[in-house]
Amino acid sequence: MAETQIPLFPQRGARGQYGPPITQIKAITADSSLAMAAGAYHDHMVRQGFSEHTIKAFGGDLRLLQKYFGSSMAIIKLGTKELNDFLTWLLHYRGVPCSPKSYARRVTALKSFFGWLTSIKILPRDPAAPIIHARAKAPLPLFLKDDQLEKFLNAAEIKLNSDRPDPRPYLLAHLVLQTGMKKAECVGIALRDIDRSGPEPSVLIRYTNPRMQHKERKLAFAAELLPVLDQYIEKYQPKEYLFECTPRNLEYVLADVSELAGLPDQVSFEMLRWTSALRDFRDGMEHDHLRKKLGLSKITWRETSEKLTKIANPGL
What we know:
Layout: H1 34-47, H2 52-69, H3 80-93, H4 100-119, H5 146-160, H6 167-179, H7 183-187, E1 194-195, E2 202-205, E3 217-220, H8 226-236, H9 247-261, H10 269-282, H11 287-294, H12 298-312
Antiparallel strand pairs: 1-2, 2-3
């Protein structure tokens, strides 16, 4: 009697021994429900490398849209009038305060969601395009003016050359100023990721989270900083990471330098990062190069570049 050969892969719709029937993923259409389209958009945001914060925020905004219209509402039935009715409900009838910042983000979520559906030809026209996008006016970032920066760096140099020399403030200030890295990125610098082999030394910024690996990049810094780096390593004897202390301790380092410089405000990592970006922006660095140097997505860069333009040209 011939033996029955078990197929290597079960057929679609067949019930497996240990699980539910194997189904085929359905592509969305104009008649798909809001819930199905929102799920597909979530996957799109993940693939495109949207930040976790943006994915979570936009997902919450689209759940509010489903709460108002019902999750089974077909996306083709939503026009500009319906979306404006939804926004009116958010502002006046939901019973929960909607700040200008939250409102602006929710309009952005609608425009991004329906713009994507239109771009992939699911919808014939974008119902969110005519919506007036009255953005909340976020305060401009703090940065160091030229005279303040000079005082700050001079104070760091005083600590470097004092009777009890401390190279850490000088190294920290110049490294962040030259690379524009974030505080978390600075704290995460591994000694093995500092490359001295080329004509221009560099540091590799790594991310362990797979969703954030698009932010990984190599940042160059001046070779003149290497002697201070060596002096720092000799004094502090780090084993694995360049700065083996808490992020708060590094903030205290910047605060001490700020006080010595006589600055009215305490200098933070964020202030140094914006100062770094502004210097590159004013020096004419190509915008996409600067975006990549800062580790920003194209969406985040749009707002960042607007702010840089305003603080670089305060009279405009």
